[in-house]
């Protein structure tokens, strides 16, 4: 190492102390009782270490032991390392909350993870909307998860003119308004696997009665099985797990062989669906 000018190592100007003002490859180290590297600025690697000489990451390395691991380059500004169990604590008042926030140049907490000590709940918020809640018992709810339920309002005659879209017009619930009770169509808001269930119950006295009952999605058709109850009552059910892209649709239709068949209203005939994954 070349000889250093001591005036460039420590500089006092304007009420501040500057160490290594000349940007030399000289470490700055503070010892504690029993630890020679309680605080270390490693000039050669441009790292700051607490409790050890830093050797991982691109910023601050808190190291109580060597784990033998490396660190991912897209998450290396802060590294917490130990040779056994490692972690960090966020301590708050018992009627307040602790959080980790994620921000950008448009919103400094557009997403965050929060623990509420007042009711011992855990919340995940994304794009300012609370997406996942975990209550004190461990129950998980997803308030914005796509889900809907609708049923036929009253008895209706579908006729025998081919495929008839079942009028599930009475909504029980519809998270995020993805189901259109005017066209009886569900539109997938995001790509994923959706579980659908539909039942059509109706009446017809014909002994040769047949019914085509199906869920039609943009990617496939799922057929139902019809069963007979009593002498003139029928029920058909379709349950399907559909792979859907965002903006794909799902609708229920039937094709009856008899003009005398009619669909029972109220909750006898329903259409449900929700995003599984």
What does this structure look like?
The protein is mostly beta strands and 277 residues long. It has three domains: 6-81, no CATH class; 97-141; 147-275, Jelly Rolls, CATH 2.60.120.40. The chain is built from one helix and 25 strands. The chain has one helix spanning 6-9; strands spanning 10-13, 16-19, 28-32, 35-42, 47-50, 60-63, 78-81, 97-102, 111-116, 121-126, 129-134, 140-141, 147-152, 164-165, 170-174, 179-180, 185-187, 192-203, 211-217, 220-223, 225-229, 233-244, 249-256, 262-263, 266-275. Strands 13, 15, 18, 21, 22, 24 and 25 form a seven-stranded antiparallel sheet that branches. Strands 14, 16, 17, 19, 20 and 23 form a six-stranded antiparallel sheet that branches. Strand 4 and strand 5 form a beta hairpin. The two termini are 60 Å apart.
Topology:
Blueprint: H1 6-9, E1 10-13, E2 16-19, E3 28-32, E4 35-42, E5 47-50, E6 60-63, E7 78-81, E8 97-102, E9 111-116, E10 121-126, E11 129-134, E12 140-141, E13 147-152, E14 164-165, E15 170-174, E16 179-180, E17 185-187, E18 192-203, E19 211-217, E20 220-223, E21 225-229, E22 233-244, E23 249-256, E24 262-263, E25 266-275
């Amino acid at each position: 190492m070349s000889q250093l000018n001591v005036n460039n190592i420590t500089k006092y100007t304007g009420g501040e102390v500057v160490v290594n003002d000349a940007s030399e490859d000289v470490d700055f180290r503070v010892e504690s009782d029993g630890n020679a590297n309680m605080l270390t600025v490693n000039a050669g690697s441009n790292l700051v270490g607490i409790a050890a000489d830093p050797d991982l990451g691109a910023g601050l390395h808190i190291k109580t032991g060597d784990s033998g691991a490396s660190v991912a380059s897209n998450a290396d500004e802060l590294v917490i390392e130990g040779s056994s169990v490692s972690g960090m604590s966020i301590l708050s008042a018992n009627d307040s909350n602790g959080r980790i926030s994620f921000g950008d140049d448009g919103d400094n907490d557009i997403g965050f993870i929060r623990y509420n000590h007042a009711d011992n709940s855990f919340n995940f918020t994304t794009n300012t909307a609370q997406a996942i809640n975990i209550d004190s018992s461990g129950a998980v709810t997803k308030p914005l998860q796509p889900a809907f339920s609708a049923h036929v309002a009253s008895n209706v005659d579908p006729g025998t003119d081919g495929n008839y879209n079942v009028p599930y017009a009475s909504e029980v619930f519809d998270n995020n308004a993805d189901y259109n009770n005017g066209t009886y169509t569900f539109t997938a808001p995001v790509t994923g696997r959706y579980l659908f269930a539909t039942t059509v119950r109706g009446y017809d006295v014909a002994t040769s009665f047949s019914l085509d009952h199906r869920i039609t999605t943009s990617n496939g058709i799922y057929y139902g099985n019809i069963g007979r109850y009593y002498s003139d009552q029928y029920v058909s059910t379709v349950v399907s797990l559909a792979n859907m892209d965002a903006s794909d649709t799902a609708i229920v239709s039937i094709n009856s062989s008899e003009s005398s068949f009619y669909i029972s209203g109220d909750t006898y005939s329903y259409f449900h669906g929700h995003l599984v994954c």
